Fold:
Amino acid sequence: MTAARATQVAATIRADIQAMTAYPVGHALDAIKLDAMECPYPLPDHVRDEIAQAARDAALNRYPGGDLTALHAQLRTAFGIPDAASVMCGNGSDELIHLIVQACCEPGDVVLSPAPSFVYFEMAARFDHARYVGVPLTADLTLDLPAMLDAIATHRPKVVFLAMPNNPTGGSWAPDDVAAIIAAAPGLVVIDEAYQPFTDHTWMPQVLDFDNVVVMRTVSKIGLAGLRFGYVAGDAAWIGAFDKIRPPYNIGVLTQAVLQVVLSHKAVLDAQAAQLRADRAPLAEALAALPGTTVYPSAGNFLLVRFSGTLDGNTIHRSLKARRILVRNFEHSHPLLADCLRISIGTPDENAALLAALKDLLKA
Ligand SMILES: *Cc1c(COP(=O)(O)O)cnc(C)c1O
Structure:
């Protein structure tokens, strides 16, 4: 790049964007991939064949049709969205997070969430000129309700994001605590249920019981991370406002076609989620039995583990990577996550390979 062009970029791109690094996306071709909460199981052949047919028949020469009634009806049935709630679809819930912040926040308005939580809440807030406030969890990584209520009173957030179960800690917050936050919040509370399929609790049936709540979900963690599809449900007044700023063709014809096929086989997704959920407790126990580990209770398809024995989190992360096992490291992240690694639940073979590698590293 020429010096003149560098100067032009520096003078033109927002200073805060120049200071940022892009969201880290891994390139893992030949590794055991336990770093991004993806479902490790592929779709069965008969579903893939149907997808191939649906893709073949999709009208790629046309813009996606505006009538999503059929897709919405399928979503309602598949995911238990109340009949009276409105639904809006997004290109992953990441897009929905942006749209919600953009629709609610004037520059400088506050977006608040417990911290550490999903990093994209903070990123979207920054990109969209809002001010992000993260309210630290307790030392044992649970919700600090008094601190949340204090921060809500002080900062009067336009939007509160509550990921339940929480990423990256895995915990979920007590319904009474959440109700207290909803009652105290002067603006919108977005309940992000990305990991709901791995737990029993959901706020979806109650979404219309409150004036200031919407529930957001994604299909990324249940086998369709590559598709990029999420949805938000709530009262028509909220959803209609978000819909005004939605890019008109944000869900492509292929996404719609594939999703409609896969949702007609929803039992396949449910069985995969049930398998991961069943494998969670045995993996947690085995990890907890290693020397120097703390495994935090998880209601998601992942486990957060703190390593405080002979090797620190970074060393273990690097050593696992050298053995072609990828997990998520939180170096340079939130101080509460020091020496923590987040490990997605894999197939039984992948989980066994992870445990064998850790036993070897920790000489257990
Ligand atoms: C993974 C994750 C998402 C991202 O969803 P996409 O639909 O893949 O954009 C949203 N919220 C939380 C809490 C997540 O962990």
